[in-house]
Amino acid sequence: MYLTTYFPLLFLIFFATFVLHDTPFKMTNKLIAIIIISSYIWTSTAQHKKREMRAVWIASVANIDWPSKKNLTPKEQRLEMTTMLDEFVKNNINAIFIQIRPTADAFYPSSYEPWSQWLTGKQGVKPSPYYDPLEFIIEESHKRCIEVHAWLNPYRVTNSESTEQLSKHHKYFKDPEMFLKYGGKTYFNPGLDETRQFLNKVVEEIVKKYDIDAIHFDDYFYPYKHQNDVFPDESTFQKFPRGFTNKNDWRRNNVNLIIAELSQTIKDTKKWVEFGISPFGVWRNKSADPRGSATSATQNYDDLYADILKWLNEGTIDYVAPQLYWEIGKKNANYEVLVKWWSENSCNKNLYIGLYNSNLGVKEAPSAWHRGNELVRQLNLNKKHPQIDGAAFYSANAFMKNKFGLNDSLKSNFYKYPALSPISRNIKGEEAKTPTNFKIHKEGKKNILRWDETKDSNHLKAAYYVVYIFKGNQTGDINKAENIFVKTFNNFVDITDFIESHKDTYCFTVTAVNRFKHESTPSPSIIMQ
Hints:
The protein is an alpha/beta fold. The protein has helices spanning 3-20, 27-46, 74-90, 117-120, 133-143, 171-174, 193-209, 234-239, 247-269, 300-304, 308-314, 335-344, 374-382, 396-400, 406-414, 496-501; strands spanning 53-58, 95-101, 147-152, 179-182, 185-188, 214-217, 274-277, 319-320, 350-355, 390-393, 439-443, 446-450, 464-471, 484-488, 492-494, 506-513, 526-528.
């Protein structure tokens, strides 16, 4: 902790001391001064959460973020990924939402779908020299204490009119009756039982095979409406109405079914893996439903047939990350209105706000995205809503450019200290085991903190460990983020440089964080003098 951290507070104290001792000064103004100081003290201590989601979306479709080109070698792909992850660590980012199934294809060896064209340049062609991109991403992310949320698009098969880019082994050619064309793109037919069965197999394989932290869907369920084009599912509705007479209700039920089934598939496979949705930012407009928001925009419920509130109420999803990609004050979709609405309607599930860092400084964007930093204004506004558990930035490419100094603001202010990921309110998990044999080891000229690895009842190692440091010879408050010395995937920390540069007495302790994100009680402390 440095003096500069407290300089504004010291100035306020000096100012108040002067004011409060100035006898002609009115009592009202004295009270105002006291309120200002109290407010500053409260905000300075409350602004750094120890648990907070800090995520970045990494889009693979059309090579938006990663890989940056189709023709990169596996070595170049890995270098791009680790460079991004290292930058995220510098900004205390603790999760990525990585797109591994952009168009019914795969960024991993799948039993059901071909390798992605966005990875190798041609669908169905595996990386050469071979490697498993998803396995690599998980390993490198977890090393850096970054969660991996595997991002899938459920229905989209092509991103253009042509199907020529599809591998000859694609399911599109094996079972063409499962697919529909709409708006110049190809989709799985959401009204078919076979579609849901297939998607469950795809997700089950990912969860079973890979050490992911969550399955993540974005806003693409039924496609956004395309001019006067009609989604061609009338014959499916007539053939398989399942008791529905209203097609819109039937479509919503199609999506409700897949969400509920996937939720069960995920939890039956690994109960600690979360299921999260990042929907379009408006559930319904108030004009359509009194429970809706004071907006006039596209609606999840009516246009995409995604009833987010139902899933939140029923607990079939574990978190929601609405894409609030508009500026504060926007007439038909005001960020301030929507962030309040979602805070009041998250149904006690984890709430992460999707932020549009890609829009900063874009020529065509409204003026708000050119004056100062709109995202800093939005992050400050989020602090007013304690229900918000964090934020996610779209997307990685813009994040790497540090648009309008966003990363600088994160490092110096919002994400100044590391943060643990929030515990899911929707998943009951076991407590973490406390690390034992926490000691300082002299290894040559090095001083190493070491402890025994912990395992849970499923014989799984801890997700990571948290080492805390306190000045003096007593353990302090581990609930304060500023007391985190380091988060580490390993069961040791090299403190040689710290010892050489700090001559005071310090106290260390360590905790373990398990797959359910529960933190153990701290180990017995070590005093370093």
